[in-house]
Amino acid sequence: MNRKKMVAGNWKMNMTNDESVNFINQLKSTLVKNVDVKIAPSFTNLYNAILLLDSSEIEVIAQNIHYEDKGAFTGEISAEMLKNIGVKTVIIGHSERRKYFNETDSILSKKVKKAVDNSLKVIFCIGEELSERENGNHFELIKNQLKTGLFNLSEQEIQNTVIAYEPVWAIGTGKTANNHQIQEMHEFIRQLVKDKYGIGFSEKIRILYGGSVKPINAKDIFSLDDVDGGLIGGASLNISDFNSIVQAANG
Length: 251
Ligand code: 13P
Description:
The protein is an alpha/beta fold. It is about 45% helix and about 15% strand. Bound molecules: 1,3-dihydroxyacetonephosphate.
């Protein structure tokens, strides 16, 4: 099955608004013909980024969302707020949210549901810690993250979701999972999607890899059968690295 590749830059807590504008002005000339390119700036930069990329193929997406509609949740951002400025996609379940902000699978499940109820597309992140891999628990862990966090969605609700497999030990460490580990896990994830939602959707859903993707390894990773692109952290902050990674996905 021919799935269009996706490359999404997760800027995390980096870039001021000025830096973001500067980056986007350079990014605008990126050739994105056969790749879905997305950037996820921080909340303060979102609206400006959307205005700047208004007539571009590059999509501006959010890094997080709250699961309540509105109310006394100091510091949080709602689905409606995101939609109102033109955001259409949100990252949910990043390991940094799980780890530093105690977002459990059941909280994430509520976030996913809120996003989908508001017609926002979701990039749902999963991934194991090194100790879980070393103990041989990584498959079980990934299965549980999907089951509890994502698989509560109905077949209709899940249609616009993308899964990002990001082994925690490969994030920001320069240590990429090897091609065998990546393909094996992506195949496993696709099989779980198939078991739950059937072969049609399992062939359609895009599964991204994240964790120290760089210009030097992007092409190899993106050529794996069940890898449909990447979620890029550090390298997405450098325009020439990010461009190279997008071109690697362009085939
Ligand atoms: P790095 O590319 O910096 O390893 O980060 C990956 C990531 O967490 C993307 O969401």
